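Bench notes, afternoon.
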Amino acid sequence: MTRALCVLGLVAAALAGVTAQTEQTREGWQRVADLFAAAGVHAGASIADVGAGEGFLTVRLSPAVGPSGAVYAVDVDTKMTDGLRQRVAAARLTNVKVTVGADDDPHLPASALDGVLIVNAYHEMPQGVSMLRRIREALKSGGRLVLCEPVPRTPNQSRKAQMDDHVLDPELIIADLHSAGYEVVGRQDSFAMNLGGTHFGFIAAKRP
């Protein structure tokens, strides 16, 4: 092996270690267990991770729902979904389906899901209410939707300014949920805080 290949191998190993450590750290501050409980995650459940990104939640949902359950990992970015498919295949997660969604539609099966998670992603959705309506159609009666989003530090910003800053006021999310036909069943504006000091709000809703 050449010196260059050896160096590249060491760098790749170091980056893999950093990623694992970052995800392990995030699992604590993000309160993953509480998010899963609120979304009704259990063995045999069908759960969607909308805005799945690199699959932080997806790879944790898979063992949580078990072989009799199903995980739908949705993202609009094909680079993300391509990478996630590789991660799922490498981990041999046979109960995960990776799907490319649209801005207004996650392309989920109708009335099939026990729960849906949107974590640190709703503020990136330009057609939020349309997306929420499609998700409601994918939930079973009584199915849960859980959102966990960064809360603005500065009050009274416009929605556009908040989205540009990658945050969203819980009141705006709740208004969207009501418009989309949900019943809001839980709210915590200081649910979690990341290592940079950003607070995340929590909202739980259900399909009536």
